[in-house]
Amino acid sequence: MKNVAEFTIRLEQVLGADGKPSGTLPDFARDAAEVERMYRMMTLCRLFDAKAINLQRTGRLGTYAPCTGHEATHVGVGAAMRQDDVLCPVYREYGTQLWRGVTLTEILVYWGGDERGTHFAGPRQDLPWCVPIASQMPIAAGVAMAFKVRNEPRCAVAYIGDGGTSEGAFYEAMNAAGAQKLPVVFVVVNNGWAISVPVAAQTAAQTLAQKAIAAGIPGVQVDGNDVLGVRSVMESALERARSGGGPTVVEALTYRLSDHTTADDATRYRPADELEAAWLREPLLRTRRYLESMGNWDEAREKSLREDCAAQIESAVRAYQTTPKDSTDAMFDHLFATLPEALEEQKDAARRWSSVNGGVGH
Amino acid sequence: MKNVAEFTIRLEQVLGADGKPSGTLPDFARDAAEVERMYRMMTLCRLFDAKAINLQRTGRLGTYAPCTGHEATHVGVGAAMRQDDVLCPVYREYGTQLWRGVTLTEILVYWGGDERGTHFAGPRQDLPWCVPIASQMPIAAGVAMAFKVRNEPRCAVAYIGDGGTSEGAFYEAMNAAGAQKLPVVFVVVNNGWAISVPVAAQTAAQTLAQKAIAAGIPGVQVDGNDVLGVRSVMESALERARSGGGPTVVEALTYRLSDHTTADDATRYRPADELEAAWLREPLLRTRRYLESMGNWDEAREKSLREDCAAQIESAVRAYQTTPKDSTDAMFDHLFATLPEALEEQKDAARRWSSVNGGVGH
Amino acid sequence: MAKVTLVEAVNMALARALEQDQDVVLLGEDIGRNGGVFRATVGLQERFGPLRVQDSTLAEGVIAGMAVGMASQGLKPVAEIQFMGFIYPALDQIANHMARMRNRTRGRLTMPIVVRMPHGGGIHAPEHHSESLETLLCHHAGLRVICPSSPARAYGLLLAAIRDPDPVMFLEPTRLYRMSKQEVLDDGLALPLDRAFRLREGEDVTVVTWGAMTHDVLRAAEQLSLEKIGCDVIDLASLSPIDHDTVLDSVARTGRLVIVHEAARHCGVGAEVAATVAERGLHDLLAPIRRITGYDTVMPYFKLEHDYIPSVARIVDGVREAVRT
Amino acid sequence: MAKVTLVEAVNMALARALEQDQDVVLLGEDIGRNGGVFRATVGLQERFGPLRVQDSTLAEGVIAGMAVGMASQGLKPVAEIQFMGFIYPALDQIANHMARMRNRTRGRLTMPIVVRMPHGGGIHAPEHHSESLETLLCHHAGLRVICPSSPARAYGLLLAAIRDPDPVMFLEPTRLYRMSKQEVLDDGLALPLDRAFRLREGEDVTVVTWGAMTHDVLRAAEQLSLEKIGCDVIDLASLSPIDHDTVLDSVARTGRLVIVHEAARHCGVGAEVAATVAERGLHDLLAPIRRITGYDTVMPYFKLEHDYIPSVARIVDGVREAVRT
Ligand SMILES: Cc1ncc(C[n+]2csc(CCOP(=O)(O)OP(=O)(O)O)c2C)c(N)n1
Ligand SMILES: Cc1ncc(C[n+]2csc(CCOP(=O)(O)OP(=O)(O)O)c2C)c(N)n1
Ligand SMILES: [Mg+2]
Ligand SMILES: [Mg+2]
Fold it and tell me: What is the pLDDT of residues C78-115, one digit of tens each?
């Protein structure tokens, strides 16, 4: 037998769990204001998560997918992207979305059961949340294809979870993007679990980054709790994509510190000690330690940051809670550019019955 | 960055294009009778192909997918399998099917537009031809799962083409088979083309064997025009699967020497010189040369083999052509174990209209 | 006799099938350790082991395809699709193989498969978790499509589905999963797979429905009885094939037909019921047929879902109109 | 004015759209160098280059998903699925994204997409190459579904579909691709997307059909005219939404309705036509509605396909019965 191809998968980490540099620091990591900006957003995400879970528990929000534990990945990716790049999210990457201009209120309106949450006043071209697992992947390839057709220096970024990598759509999209050299970066957020299924039961692959090899494109692992590492790896991948080098797969190694969603109870299936150990690697504290080591952070600033976040969150919750229910017309008005005549009657009926029902049939 | 995983893809070849050994000969390759058996089947396939194409051209067969060029792969795989293994074919792997007991008549009946061709009097558990590309892959994983559940030392073998590897189902199945360590071997027949699309446009992967890395399972290339190499690589992969080692991907490098099907005209898209060059690597001649070098073959034997094949083919064509059209009842009788009452009326109508139409509505 | 919810009845039937028949194998996402996101399979992996109750990789195409492969070798897979909205990646296998294998091989390979899936809305779930897509399955010959409307019918029909030698799509209405309890005897007795159930007798109008809507129809019928309007309520239960005779018999008596379903109206299963009556029972009809259905819009996210799902008031009104004309 | 086949008319419309609008991009399997397995895109890659006319990887999910992504950024993709039987891997994208994106984002991202696909049987093709699955698409709100029945209508409707700001599923009947030629002016004029076409006037019975069956229906009508039975033949052309008014107007005059389609009967689009007439036009009906359709079996492999597809004789007989009762 003769060797015909060889591949290596590498792991990047810039900031260790102790908040000390463990690799070569990228330039932005020496800019304290920039690091602070990321830390502030990570903190906002953490606090928002707690509030959203609380709203759900008290009957004021629908099922919600928390992001606790993923903040470094989400913010690192957001910070690496340009504003005119396009994000194709799954459902819990608030850090990236907030960075790009999605509002806390939009997030709440969405999980409050209202499509208007996806109207995104900020990043107008970003895709909305995507519930059918992995289906965002071919879409991201298409977004990238649009940039290629129009010869624009823009990139698509698609998220997918460890569980999502089991769906064919993940691979189909990687493969097509590779074959057509599309400007897209696929971020695999390996948070250890897909609801109750651990990664080891999801695939025999020892890394998820190596799935890129199937498509003939580069795959790289990064410590997903290291916001500096994530941003740095993403910047390289985006640069490569933007300059015509084609797609990259970035596997961010992190951990879902919460239940899958508020409808889930992870204690049923997840060992308590695994969760405990994961908390020791969580992303916020190490970023704070690093900021402190730059002489740029202290207890007072932390306190004031938390107050800022709380205020922002409160105001978003207020805006959410005062958003009146959408009218049934909306179900029809956004179905087509122009409602087919045949549906006018249904639109009228829906409006009529809505007022009779008062919204509940049961 | 640190290295976390490394992979190598290797290529096996035992018999060179010149018919001389180019690698370590497996034991069966020293058994002239065994090699002759394979050569005879390869020859039968080649001659049958010509006949089937001719039947189609003269209006006596429907669209037919030729196998010319693939004989070594197909026969090598067949010879490596045990009779109680299960084959999940695509549509042109007659060499494997014939080896396993599918008859020439069944193949003709099938391409003659009649489901009865899949009734397989021989390999009762084999799957029928599978037209929806890549959909045989998850089925093969399921066949293997049945063996695992019942703890039987049997394997599933699934074929897929180079084009087929672009479908998500290919990868989903590999991944699931890897995660669940199923006894299945996936044979990727890389014949260079998927209808009009060359492999290089189908994927950026430099080999198709490396697609296995995505699933965390072994992938290996073999010269698909080398029947000894194919059989040898398949025997190892099957042995591994049978003993609980899990799935393997085998990429057989061969070439589609024909049009895609009789409905296709490859001259529209395929460079003539590529085809010419491929003929120099075709599988029959080298096997014959090898047999000759074993002192086991000469012109007379060749001639008598060809006569044997022609006789077999003729008798199959006769059986095919004297097979009366199936009755419309068959459409209903095999829909469910017991036809739902609601369909009795339709069954009667179909029977009635069939005699009125005389089979043609246009 | 235990009082159980619909999801508990499903669990009981699955346990019994696993116990009685070694060939029965369950597979699906999160059905093992976690017991299913609705707890339909709770305790089963513990009891029958990880090969009989398998956590699948996250790929509906694999779940369905693996079921096809297992069935082809004689097993009786019972697959779960986590929500009906996620059936799409499984449709290639369901339509092109499961529904056709027996026919394509002229009876050589058969598909004794059940595909279970939560169906419909009304539980304030995320997007894509509330779909009613029975039409997509019903249009494929070779499949049976069943939708139970009570714990007892879920138990008896699921056992029948598992024992049936052909593929059965088993739609479990999410809003009934825990709606109410009913005494269900775990006696292993199956119900017939292609019979509709007459749930209430009435002489004025036939109301055909299935699944979760059954309960709203019964409530509407109760209200209408106060106005002396008698509803003959038929729970189709089997959406393919449909027990048209039961519907036609009823319409022959009442002369009026109202069909209620949650799925979108355009090409919904209600159209098939209406069309068949317009063919075979036209002369019995004293008034136009009415369909009270979900609208021809996307199933809305939960804030508007109760504006989409036909309400009791809408049903009452529709039936009243049918009777008045 | 050139006499062209239906497939040539499709090619003409595609060429014109590519020429007129830089945002139009074609994608699909074998559509480039090879010009499509039916030659619908022949010459277009040569003329417009490989970025405007793209050979896709062999993955229908990618073709549909890429179309969604491209459309979200303002392009107007025209995707080809090689045969309708291979639509399944694309359905997740079509149903969950293409049909819903405008609604889900409340108008922010729109889906000006056309998905073209050969439809139906009768050309002696391999298994899975002859399916009529319009119901699967029609049941999804947010999609338009079009099926032309002549070269001129294919040209005008395809142009309309490409210019429409919403997703249009465009079903091209394979047995019409080369059946006959018709003069088609390449004038860039589109036809309205949601109007049925009345192809023949008659006073005795309304016959509703679409796609390839239109020709068999017209032939049947011709035969029936010899028996003094006048058929009002309506080619629906748009299967979602349906131009019910045209059907109802006709039934109001004829009092009789026969629906002819190739797809399976159970939950076929014919059921929707029948149901709507039984709701809105019941009192006009002098006789039971009749559906003459493919059977509720798997579409057979080609030896039996002409026993499956309604024949002219079967149509003649069905219409005759409708008129006699
Ligand atoms: C096609 C599809 N199948 C099933 C589901 C139900 N489901 C929602 S989230 C989830 C697990 C996803 O896990 P992963 O991809 O690891 O993402 P994570 O939630 O961990 O971020 C499943 C099975 C779905 N949403 N879509
Ligand atoms: C799902 C699906 N899409 C498209 C087709 C049409 N089609 C038939 S064969 C083929 C190319 C297959 O190429 P490859 O996998 O390389 O196999 P080969 O024919 O070369 O053996 C295509 C696109 C199909 N049969 N199924
Ligand atoms: Mg995960
Ligand atoms: Mg090929």
Answer: 999 999 999 999 999 999 999 999 999 999 999 999 99
> Tokens representing D72?
């979200």
Please report the DSSP string for C9-24 in residue order: HHHHHHHHHHHH-TTE
Structure tokens that stand for C319 in this block: 């039936």
| Shortest-distance atom of ligand 2 to CA D88 | 1
Distance separating alpha carbons of residues C170 and D11, to the nearest angstrom = 44
Distance CA D83, CA D299 (A): 14
Segment (H or E) for D219: helix D213-226
**Tokens representing C66?**
């693996």
Counting Cα atoms < 13 Å in the Cβ hemisphere of C119 gives: 27
Go through B154-185 and write b for each residue having 16 or more CB atoms within 10 A of its CB, e for each that does not: bbbbbbbbbbbbbbbbbbbbbbbbbbbbbbbb
**Mean pLDDT score of chain D:** 98
Residues of chain B with pLDDT under 50: 359-362
| Residue D140 bears catalytic tag | no
Is B200 touching D (CB cutoff 8 A)? Answer: no
Whether A136 lines ligand 1, by a CB cut-off of 6 Å, is no
Alpha-carbon distance of B231 to B237, in angstroms, equals 10
Place of tokens 């389609």: D261
Q: Which atom of ligand 2 is nearest to the CA of D30?
A: 23
pLDDT in tens, C196-227: 999 999 999 999 999 999 999 999 999 999 99
Residue A24, judged by CB atoms within 10 A of its CB (0-12, 13-18, 19+), counts as: exposed
Q: What separation in angstroms does the CA of C321 have from each of A65, C290, D304?
A: 44, 9, 47
pTM over 0.90: yes
Specify the pLDDT at position B357.
Answer: 64
Strand blocks (E) in chain C: 2-4, 24-28, 53-55, 76-80, 114-119, 144-146, 168-173, 182-184, 197-200, 205-209, 231-235, 238-240, 257-264, 290-294
Q: How far apart are CA D296 and CA B331, in angstroms?
A: 9
User: Which of D57, D58, D83 most suits a substitution to test ligand 2, by most atoms within 8 Å of the C-beta?
Assistant: D58
Q: CB D296 to CB B343 under 8 A? A: yes
Q: Give residue B52's identity as a one-letter amino acid code.
A: A
Helix (H) or strand (E) holding D198: strand D197-200
Which of D304, D123, D317 shows the shortest CA–CA distance to D212?
Answer: D123
The CB-based long-range contact list for A93-100 (8 Å cut-off, 24+ gap) reads: A93/A67, A93/A159, A93/A189, A94/A45, A94/A48, A94/A49, A94/A67, A95/A41, A95/A42, A95/A45, A95/A67, A95/A70, A95/A71, A96/A157, A96/A159, A97/A123, A97/A126, A98/A41, A98/A44, A98/A45, A99/A41, A99/A74, A99/A75, A100/A126
CA separation, residue D147 to residues B287, D138, D246, D310 (Å): 53, 12, 17, 18
Tell which residue, D206, D197, D173, D187, has the closest CA to residue D40: D173
- Verify whether the Cβ–Cβ distance B138 to C66 is below 8 Å: yes
Contacts of A284 (CB under 8 A, 6+ apart): A39, A42, A43, A46, A71, A72
H or E element: which one contains A39? helix A32-57
Which letter, b or e, does each residue of B128-145 get, where b requires 16 or more Cβ atoms within 10 Å of its Cβ?
Answer: bbbbbbbbbbbbbbbbbb
* Residues D190, D193, D199, D202, CA torsion sign: negative
Q: In what order do the strands lie in the sheet with C24-28?
A: C53-55, C24-28, C76-80, C114-119, C168-173, C144-146, C238-240
> What is the reported pLDDT for C2?
84
Rounded Cα distance between C91 and B346, Å, is 26
Give how far Cα A264 sits from Cα of A56, C34, C259, Å.
12, 10, 36
* Closest by Cα among C37, A318, C142, C168 to B333: C142
Nearest CA among C194, C209, C314 for reference residue C257: C209
